[in-house]
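Intended use. Records such as the 1-deoxy-D-xylulose-5-phosphate synthase entry shown here are meant for training and evaluating sequence-to-structure methods. They are not intended to support clinical decisions.
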Amino acid sequence: MNDLLKGMPTPAELRQMSRSEQKSVVKMVRQFLLETVSQTGGHLSSCLGAVELTVALHAVFNTPEDRLIWDVGHQAYPHKILTGRGPLFPRLRIKDGLSGFLKRDESPYDSFGAGHSSTSISAALGMAVAAKLGHKSREVVAIIGDGAMTAGLAYEALNNGGVLDANLLVILNDNEMSISPNVGAVSQYLTRILSGRFYNTVREGAGQALSFVPPLRELAKKAEEGVKGLVTPGTLFEEMGFHYFGPIDGHDLDALIQTLENLKKIRGPRLLHIITKKGKGYAPAEQDPCGYHGVTPFNRMDGKMAKKPASAVSYTQVFGDWLCDKGAAEKQLVAITPAMREGSGLVRFEQLFPDRYFDVGIAEQHAVTFAAGLACDGIHPVVAIYSTFLQRAYDQLLHDVAIQNLPVLFAVDRAGLVGADGATHQGAFDMAYARCIPNLVIMAPKDEQEMRDMLNTGFAYQGPALVRYPRGNGRGLTLNKDLSRQVPIGKAEVLREGKELAILAFGTRAAAAMVAGAALDATVVNMRFVKPLDTELLTSLAQSHRAFLTVEEGARMGGAGSAVAEFLLNEGVVCPLRLLGLPDIFIEQGDAGQWLADLGLDAAGIEKSGGELLALLARSPSGA
């Protein structure tokens, strides 16, 4: 690895190299990627597919003065390697190490931070307009995948960009894959046109054949443009005001560099369409690009990843099993995902009930309003979505589902800390941003059995319901799969009777709270519901206890603990109260358990905070 880094050029050095030397850099970057990511884990197949493109971009454009805006960041490892961050790769996606995504404060070459999809064209358009207003000749390039083109935000930016006539180059990196297999009419259109014999025949021969006859040269030109308008994928982009070029082979470095050099000489909105292969250069990833999208450490020789112990069952798998069981019993149940079939545990459901499975692409807003429309006419949708991605559909959750009080169940995965993906993916905010929405029931299970029971509860509720659950494995419980089991809405569960101090735990922090409660002889309550709160139990506890400690794996500001504080204040209860949760910062990448310990949310941290409250009571016997 060190030998590879010694020969790795800076972007400025890359621009001075011969073409043969630049091709050697392509091989070095791909080899370095395999050597490092096989040890650290991370995003692999999309990065392998973008190596030639990355080398070409830095070879042609004067980075970082010229701006490269990468969409999502899944394909950005080659960019990080070429911009001086290769030595940091052994600490990829761990605490205080290298981020797996783009970060402006990590490198001047990261022009725009990205972790969510489909933002690059909007951001690049803003930079292009800024350059124009500042009278700068800077080049601005947005790189976006075909999967990200299923999101409305990309088309909003294209629509605006064509009108503004800004000096912007958009590169559509088309590998026919998002995280899950790509879906949608645009994807099907591109694939159908590019693979069609008619398009390729016309593209290769028609204009040339007609141009041999001198009097017909102008007619040939018009005929070629007319046919192109009928059959090429550029029609859509041309109509939006972008000059369309391509498609070209995204692994042909000669063609890439020459085309980019030519496009630099053209002003205005341009779109270059390139075709790449996800996983390029590594056979296991080429054969299974979805499986190698995000990898754990693996054997580079055979591609085999370490398997989880057979007894380990994730919350995602528990949800997927429940969905299949419930789907068999409830014919009106449909499942919706915004391009996260594997990540949300929907593979088996799609196989069993293909007519009731809907992958809408990277289109979270549409997913939620689509669910609302289904619910209006008697279908009962379950929207499987990550906490961080539900943020993108907040208005739809509020305006289209909650105001109309529609029976839509949100299965919110990755709630709480997610580990290696870091700040852009932490499920920190769902309790805070959802708690203020009327009609919405919000549940946080303590374990996988309670999660199943809450999913039953949410599905039976005749309004919008949200069940939030974490990334990772459950406690290994033997589950009772009775689909009639429910949790009484708004009722908490006392896990331990104690004295003076009441620890109120929301979600999976209940287990750590139990350990702390035993050490402190405190009452421990599994609150279960963020909304509605069990106000009857809180009133009773306020009469029998002198202090409260709330614990949640979510943003402390406006979260579940804040709901408790609001209730006690409104009831005139005056007592020591401490809220434990995620602080008012963005939590970066790193092991979730380590972060919980550092933030005082593990058993030791809860015990420490509880001990401080008890010490305060000892100094003030009246509890005032």
